[in-house]
Amino acid sequence: MKNKTSTRKRVLTVVLTVFVGAIIFAFGITQRHWFDAQYVYLDNGNAAYQTDDLQTAIKFYDQSLSVYKARMRSETWSERFLYPHPDRRAAAQAAFHKGMALLKAKQAEAAVEAFHESLVLNPGNMYEGTLSAKDQEAAREEAGVVKYNLMLLFKSQPQLAQGQGKGKGKPGDGKPGDGKPVPSDDPSSKPGKGDKDAI
To answer: Tell me, what CATH number does 107's domain have?
Structure first.
């Protein structure tokens, strides 16, 4: 009786070992053939940009951004476990390089949009506690480069900066009834915080 039980245990152990081995082998094959399209498209865009093939570069940068957005929308728990998380900083870099390519292709308005998208993805201050100090500093520098290029673009083409604030005002906004400024903006000749009667 003991012999039958030990034989069953051995058979069960062998079957489980083969089963687990098959799963690990399948996972290894999947990993071997998997590549991160977000980085591949970004690298292809950079290569095209270096050769002044601007339209191809823009296309690759768009594809890199599309892969990032699609993976962020539809990432399953198994993909989170098995594969690297979509890289937000790489997406910000793709948007920035797309903006530079658009600028070089004399499409300044589209370049402004791309720079803004880059800053939404990496404003430079969103990584506290999630990255090492070195990587946080790199993210801040990358965002600083985008802001600097955007500022230079606005300086060289001021018309692009119009309407880039938080919202476009309408005539008469902030001026109630008789045309006086809103109370907080009403200057006063009295010292202190202003004329309390203006409120």
So the answer is: 1.25.40.10
